[in-house]
Amino acid sequence: MPSQPNPPDSSSEINDAPKGLSPGAYEGVSGEDYQPYTPPLQSPAEFTIRAIIIGSILGILFAAANAAVGLRVGLTISASIPIAVMAVAIFGVMKHIGARKGTILENNMVQTIGSSGESLAAGVIFTIPAFFLTSFLAPGEYSITVFQIFITALIGGLLGVLFMIPLRRYLIKKEHGKLPYPEGTACAEVLVAGDTGGSQAKQVFLGLSVGAIYTVLLRGLRLWKGEADYLIPGYKNAQVSLDVTPALLGVGYILGYRISAIMVGGAMISWLGLIPVISIIGEHLTIPIFPATDLIKDMSPDDIWDNYIRYVGAGAVAFGGIITLIRAIPTIIESFKLGAREITKSVSSKLEARKRTDRDLPLAKVMIAALILAVLIAFVPQIPVGIIGGLLIVIFAFFFTTVSSRIVGLIGSSSNPISGMTIATLLGTSLVFVLMGWTGTVAKVAAISVGAVVCMAAAIAGDTSQDLKTGFLVGATPYRQQIGEMIGVITSSLFIGFTIILLHKTYVIGSAALPAPQATIMSFVVDGIIGGDLPWGLIFIGVAFGITMEILGLPSLPLAVGIYLPLATMATVFVGGCARAIVERKSKTEESRKENRERGILFASGLVGGEGIITVVIALILLAIKKKSDEIGFGFEYMGEWANLVAIVVFGILVYALYRLSFTKKSP
User: Fold this and answer.
1) CB 270 within 8 A of CB 313
2) Fewest CB within 10 angstroms: 78, 527, 607, 628, which?
3) What's the rounded Cα separation, in Å, for the pair 155 and 452?
4) Rg of the chain (C-alpha set)
5) Alpha-carbon torsion 124, 396, 421, 521, what sign?
6) Residue 109 CB coordination number (10 Å)
7) SS3 sequence of 51-71
8) If you ran DSSP here, which 8-state letter would residue 126 be given?
9) In this structure, what DSSP letter does residue 48 have?
């Protein structure tokens, strides 16, 4: 690791720093002229052992939490801001017990390392769970191990970091003032606020505590029912339901009213429209309809979803992902051209002395490391893709990491169309395999493996780009951040495989508890092209829904996710979106609206993290004592017909807490 000078009390070196980000952080000044919060000539503590340890631990925790939540709802929540806030708080506590005060650059290093764990989790849950889906591979055909997940995540993540490094000087510095980097800039503001006495940390920790305690009472002790549901009389197989969990409520608040409303609309199409229609029509049929093998009249709503609706949802999600990618084609082409030009320039340019805030890892070492990884991909048995698959990985990963690195500068990490990039990768890879005559399990496993590595590389490249922008604004050292990203990838890779296997053994990936929507879509794409046995009619119905939404001028991807997921899940997300809308409407001024929204988002992020972490802990306990989730705790069954009402009342208290805690003391 590169050494760094750490003065005895390096925090004193930045006492004269400006109180707040320079106006140049938002204005169209040249990257060369921008003055960061920490001046280049100062070198406060940054790449310290305690920052590495804290960042790694937070990265592992948020990776596990996002894996648990993402397998349920098909998306993950950006962890950069919550981790930055927690870093400020942790160093503040350490100062009170006699340790040296943390510097803003140490806090930034913690969020750099920690946020890579969340991004890696997104790449893993979008693809790896496909290997556990019986619709993709027959039981016993192929099984993936913790070590294989580790190797796949490690190589994919490191490729994402390495391929992004040559782009930093162009995207972060030269394009400063042109690429807004919304999340990276917001994270810089949080770090500066913490350095000057901000108090946002309380909201995150409060959310973590509430989410964790609520989940222990709900899933551990089972004091009340986890899902309230009511059948609609006279409307066959139609029911309204609500998943009374804190993570989904937090996700809805973070997404906001509009997106959550579209998502719940999609769920209503499935669960209050398509499923009852299929039930009514199928009531008089005497033969099963493909792909089901049972009569429709004998099916429950969940059975109809499993046999028919999930294919409709898959078609809608695939269309939404691809259309999102198509919209970004002008940006993709421009990004790739500019990125390739910058890499060529970097290779041909002579080495020159650069100030601390402009030093990257040496390009020669970066290229050698990338080459070694490319060779490993083709030959390590844990990634069974062969030379052709390895070549496809390098091509797609290089292309999409370049694209991802720039797109986050325009729309942020949370809106980065990673799933669309992965679908495009799987389409291209599967077509190449079919043209080469590769079919069967071997080809399916290889195609998903290619998609997995590319997905992780693109996700980590976007996170790296966003983190380096934050570092640019606060005056961090790029090469130290780049090493920090790699540390985050390595530490999170070590644990993410255990998390996925554990969740599968406890809750079963592909079940209603963990539907893994994104991975299911990926398996459908590969199955459809290589296996050729999908019910394409149902998939095209989903595509038709997506096209209709685009014609109406509405985003198709949120609706598609809603069609695919249970109404109970989407209804809770919608409640969270409504809570945010009410908070914003009740705020009297634009300034208070912004402050209250951010307070709510921090608390909501804590709810997501608290439930996700405790869900994994409970899974560990269940595995150790060899019990199922319904075999522990007190059990709510004694409530009888009151179980639904009690669940709604308890959840209502949680919703009210989110609403009230979004306001400052000065707000209503």
Assistant:
1) yes
2) 628
3) 10
4) 25
5) negative
6) 32
7) HHHHHHHHHHHHHHHHHHHHH
8) T
9) -
In angstroms, the CA 409 to CA 121 distance is: 21
Alpha-carbon gap, residue 359 to 34, rounded angstroms: 16
| Distances 372 to 45, 151, 168 between C-alpha atoms, Å | 32, 14, 22
Rounded Cα distance between 2 and 79, Å, is: 27
Q: Are 74 and 565 in contact (CB under 8 A)?
A: yes
Spatial distance between the Cα atoms of 664 and 668, rounded to a whole number of angstroms? 8
* Rounded distance between C-alpha atoms, residue 391 and residue 310, angstroms: 33
- The residue written with tokens 């990265």 in the block is 59
Q: φ and ψ at 325, to 5 degrees?
A: -70, -40
Cα separation, 179 vs 15, in Å, equals: 30
pLDDT digits (tens, 9 = 90+) for 11-61: 434 444 445 677 777 666 777 778 899 999 888 999 999 999 999 999 999
Output the six-digit token pair for 645. 């009402």
* Angle of the 386-411 helix axis to the 418-435 helix axis, nearest 10: 160
Kindly tell me the burial class for residue 510, based on how many C-beta atoms sit within 10 Å of its own C-beta (0-12, 13-18, 19 or more). buried
The residues, any chain, with a CB within 8 Å of residue 306's CB and separated by 6 or more, are: none
Gap between the Cα atoms of 569 and 77, Å rounded: 16
What amino acid is encoded at 230 in this protein? Y
DSSP string, 139-177: TTS----HHHHHHHHHHHHHHHHHHHGGGHIIIIIITBT
Terminal C-alpha separation, the chain: 51
Amino acid 47: pLDDT = 94
Examine the pLDDT at 123 and tell me if it is beyond 70.
yes
* pLDDT, tens digit, 9 for 90 and up, residues 47-94: 999 999 999 999 999 899 889 888 887 777 777 888 888 888 899 889
Cis status, amide bond into 5, omega within 30 of 0: no
Q: Which helix (DSSP H) or strand (DSSP E) does residue 288 occupy?
A: none
Interacting residues of 633 by C-beta distance below 8 A, sequence separation 6+: 220, 221, 222, 223
Q: Which pair of structure tokens corresponds to residue 407?
A: 């797109």
In angstroms, rounded to a whole number, what is the distance separating the alpha carbons of residues 645 and 56?
A: 42
Q: Is the pLDDT of residue 111 over 50?
A: yes
Q: What are phi and psi of 524, to 5 degrees?
A: -65, -45
Please state the φ and ψ torsions of residue 241, each to the nearest 5 degrees: -150, 160
Half-sphere exposure of 457 (CA within 13 A, CB side): 35
Residue with tokens 């490729």: 159
Diameter of the chain measured on Cα atoms: 82
Residue 91 makes CB contacts below 8 A (sequence gap 6+) with 101, 102, 106, 107
Q: CA 80 to CA 251: how far, in whole Å?
A: 15
CA–CA distance from 109 to each of 112, 113, 179, 281, 476 (Å)?
A: 5, 6, 22, 59, 8
Distance in angstroms (rounded) separating the CA atoms of residues 34 and 13: 20
Region of residue 640 (phi > 0: left; psi between -120 and 50: alpha; otherwise: beta): left
List pLDDT tens digits, range 462-504: 999 999 999 999 999 999 999 999 999 999 999 999 999 999 9
Closest CA to 599 of 500, 522, 665, 653: 665
Q: Which two tokens stand for residue 264?
A: 């719940």
